[in-house]
């Protein structure tokens, strides 16, 4: 499908999927390897330039989230058209989600082959699904991606890499996500760290979850909020991060203050 990046709007699909027959114009998922070769080249160049200073994380959108863009034509506050598909065309929805999964697996494996040292799958629109729809249309494909990527890496003779699943507003499925085959579960800022740890157990690493808008605060306040977050998560099986992405108008100096505060308080935690 044709995708354009519209300033102030984000990804836009000029010809979204409207009818079941529209699936016939989708191309073979295996063309990922050739069509997205530029992504793999960029990853290799970036890995070389990093020269071991920090790890390089590859990523992709999860099947349900990708489906919403393809059906809605872009972002949406309700996902009404996409959810209409789930209720009115469940078989076609599963067909599309399988096609997307088949495309994601070689895409993620290709990123590792190109130099990515970890992979993160973003189910950014999980919150538009309740537990029943999530368990039916999102979770099976999230699980399948992890299982098949790990198998393909092994078949290709590539070393395994940690995989992270982030389902925004998917707090209702924390237990299921913790058992979906990923080493790390990302949390948005609406989830209490201590309660999340109780729910997922001790064998899974948690990532997150400072409210991105906290970066509008003063640098001193950012430091205080980071300290509270790290204290709540504790020093084991935890990756400090924001609870979602940065916004375009955020001050890079405040992003630096966040990173510095994480390093500073992490050292103190380890010492104690």
UniProtKB/TrEMBL annotation:
Q: Where is the Uroporphyrinogen decarboxylase (URO-D) domain?
A: 57-73
List the GO biological process terms.
protoporphyrinogen IX biosynthetic process
Reactions performed catalytically: uroporphyrinogen I + 4 H(+) = coproporphyrinogen I + 4 CO2; uroporphyrinogen III + 4 H(+) = coproporphyrinogen III + 4 CO2
Instruction: Just give the chief location class.
Output: cytoplasm
UniProt GO molecular function: uroporphyrinogen decarboxylase activity
Q: Which domain of life is it from?
A: Eukaryota
Concerning SUPFAM superfamilies, the annotation shows: UROD/MetE-like
Pathway noted in the entry: Porphyrin-containing compound metabolism; protoporphyrin-IX biosynthesis; coproporphyrinogen-III from 5-aminolevulinate: step 4/4
Please state what class of enzyme this protein is: lyase
Protein location: Cytoplasm, Cytosol
Any idea what job this protein has?
A: Catalyzes the sequential decarboxylation of the four acetate side chains of uroporphyrinogen to form coproporphyrinogen and participates in the fifth step in the heme biosynthetic pathway. Isomer I or isomer III of uroporphyrinogen may serve as substrate, but only coproporphyrinogen III can ultimately be converted to heme. In vitro also decarboxylates pentacarboxylate porphyrinogen I.
The record's comment on protein family reads: Belongs to the uroporphyrinogen decarboxylase family.
Can you say what this protein is called? Uroporphyrinogen decarboxylase
